[in-house]
Design a protein that fits this description.
Order of helices and strands: EEHHHHHHHHHHHHHH
Helix content: over 70%
Structural class: mainly alpha
Number of domains: 2
CATH class of the largest domain: Mainly Alpha
Mean pLDDT: 92
Largest sheet: 2 strands, antiparallel
Distance between the termini: 59 Å
Number of helices: 14
Strand content: under 5%
Radius of gyration: 20 Å
């Protein structure tokens, strides 16, 4: 599928022999780490105890499903990855891994992960994992990403399913707690990625990806960052009043949401001349804080569950 020129390049990038790390990179390990963590939290805070070996097996296959999605996404997006500074050194655009290899790996891991999770946990968990892979690869990567500036808004659902899958692994059903964990990630995704897009906009322009910054401009994007951060807050706080919440979680969530709202407000206030003059320092800071925001919210769920185990947490 790739053309090699006289300089030993594949579509403008140097070729090389693939190593084990290149195939690991296809699975998007940084994204997978978020999948593993949130799925594990969803499983551990559920009201039904799960044997440690079963829990490990479930999280392993959820991780493999997330990795399969990453490999299939890289296979499909190889053309735009070549022109984006952030992604041009990935295994396929660099020529170290052939597209067909990524496709085969993604399909194989998809089938394996869904089948094994269904056996290790229950059919509903396996079905949710299958739908998550389908949603990320087909709905987001193949359809939304290149066709609408709402790609991140709708496509964010793919990254929001892991804690729900973890919960279903333990309970076999979906409850309000699982939905709120889903909504926490779903509503967090747009302001998180739009903060990134504000200082990485040139990449999306070169690749022809209709990110909101490209189609509607940075002023509109700044408005959206603030609005979606405001909409996120009620879902984050509502989880504090369910069985997975409590006063400790609520205190942490209040502080984190105050920080995120302040960051979104600062982004909204800025004009492009100021942002470019300081190298988008505020946008970069808010993007980094958004990562901490999500990690600490799910850590707070775990802390609340641990406190309840000692008879100290909950309402």
């Amino acid at each position: 599928m790739s053309d090699i020129n006289a300089n030993g390049e594949v579509n403008g990038t140097l070729t090389g022999e693939a190593g084990f790390g290149d195939y690991v990179s296809l699975l998007k390990p940084r994204v997978m780490s978020l999948v593993v963590f949130t799925a594990l939290v969803g499983l551990l805070v559920a009201p039904v105890p799960v044997h440690p070996f079963v829990a490990f097996t479930c999280v392993l296959f959820i991780a493999l499903g997330g990795g399969a999605s990453g490999a299939l996404n890289m296979w499909w997006d190889a053309d735009i990855d070549r022109v984006m500074r952030r992604t041009r050194n990935r295994p396929i655009p660099s020529g170290r891994v052939q597209p067909g290899e990524a496709l085969g790996l993604g399909i194989a891991l998809s089938g394996l992960s869904v089948m094994m999770l269904s056996l290790a946990a229950n059919v509903l968990a396996g079905a949710l994992l299958a739908f998550t892979i389908f949603f990320y690869v087909v709905i987001y990567s193949m359809w939304l990403k290149r066709s609408t500036p709402q790609n991140i808004v709708i496509g964010g659902a793919a990254g929001a399913f892991p804690p729900m899958i973890g919960w279903v692994c333990a309970t076999g059903s979906i409850s309000v707690e699982a939905v709120l964990m889903f909504m926490l990630i779903f509503m967090w995704t747009p302001p998180h990625f739009w903060a990134l897009a504000l200082f990485m906009n040139s990449d999306y322009e070169k690749a022809g990806v209709p990110m909101l910054t490209v189609t509607h401009g940075k002023r509109v994007t700044r408005n959206h960052v603030l609005v979606y951060t405001i909409l996120l807050v009620p879902f984050a706080l509502a989880a504090g009043f369910t069985s997975i919440g409590g006063p400790t979680y609520l205190a942490i969530s209040l502080a984190l949401n105050a920080g995120f709202l302040w960051g979104a407000w600062r982004i909204w206030q800025r004009d492009e001349a100021t942002a470019e003059a300081d190298g988008f320092a505020t946008e970069k800071a808010v993007f980094k804080f958004s990562l901490l925001y999500l990690f600490l919210h799910f850590s707070a769920f775990l802390l609340e569950a641990a406190l309840k185990g000692f008879g100290l947490g909950g309402w």
